[in-house]
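User: For my dataset I need records formatted as: sequence, then structure tokens, nothing else. Please produce one.
Assistant:
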Amino acid sequence: QRVVLMDPSEDPDDILRANRSREKTFVFDMVFDNTATQEEVYVSTTKSLIGGVISGYNATIFAYGPTGTGKTYTMLGTDSEPGIYVRALDDLFKGLEATAEEMDYTVSMSYLEIYNEVIRDLLNPSSGFLDLREDSRGSIQIAGLTEVSTTNAQEITQLLVKGNKQRTQEPTAANGASSRSHAVLQVTVTQRSPRRGTGEEVRLGKLFMVDLAGSERAAQTQNRGKRMKEGAHINRSLLALGNCINALSEKGSGSRAQFVNFRDSKLTRLLKDSLGGNSRTVMIAHISPASSSFEESRMTLIYAYRAKNIKTQV
């Protein structure tokens, strides 16, 4: 459960810094090394949340980290090693079929990306940029987003692969296929009892799976021009997310009442319920073992360590 971060530039003969090591230890709920399989990561992070979605809670899974550390691999995976998307949906449909006798269920999904602070529908990219609106109950809706109802995990997987091909990817010096946008997969499960009783009970559970764009330093990705602007937008929305996480993690500690600014970016507005609201949330932070990305790894670990202190009342 422990990550030890060593400073690659540390010199044992440096007298001035003899007692000031920059080695840091972080403790997490779960730590995976380079030998961990997709199955292990899925079982120990996400599998326990699926039952909750079926019984009407919301669940959110984040993949966070610097560019090139494997977020898209964890979430989408490859054909031979499927990622969290596919495994979670498989389990979801298995769980729903087990309750099919007493409940009728419908599953609908939408897949969108947030790129340069505009929202694009990945299942229907020709629809252009979409608006974020709040309905009368205060839940955030995206006007004009395609929702696809489906009955098995295979269909969803095909849609995901198709949608992922529409994602904005550009090569940078740090990563050949760098995702330049945040992708949000939203699966909504609605269950209602087939018996027409007096108290008609409808259970609604939402599963958000978010593959964030990589945080990056312009010096490392050597971006110029348009790429540089994209990078600034990516970092700005991740900073907004970081500010929300900071405010939420201080909220429980009884210090002064913290205002959580969810309106700073489209990403945080969309995820408002999954961060502070009625949701069970898992954040999977990715770091690279390379010594050249020491600073990024350090920032990511600090970020993830803060996120661990958020307490929500589901």
